[in-house]
Amino acid sequence: MQPSSIEEDREFMARMSAQAEGVLRKVRDAQLRLQEITGAGEAADGLVRAVAGPTGHIIDLTVSARCMRLDRSTVAAAIRDALRAAQLDARRQAQQIIGDLETHAAGFQQPLDASFVAERAERVLEDLG
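Structure for YbaB/EbfC family DNA-binding protein, as requested:
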């Protein structure tokens, strides 16, 4: 005996519910991971080091005393480069987390739409007739 449309629909909805719960768990995990991102960057052979947070804001900047022996424009460029590298690293990490989330969600069932409902109604009518 073939399962009825109602049984198939229940199974379908159960699968969708389980998938939705899985995606929501992944979203919550991604949110936590995004909040914990710290990007690192350095310049001038490590004399300047920077750390950026998840939104690109600067958390820390360390300039070695040896860096002060360099001319002002070289120090400024090294600071800029270290900051930019830290921000890019934070962005790369965020993009990886989002990419992983998108990959996981890509397998999610398509939402219920009018064609799905119409198909199910036709099947019910066929089962009755």
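Residues 37-107 form a domain with the Ybab; Chain: A; fold (CATH 3.30.1310.10).
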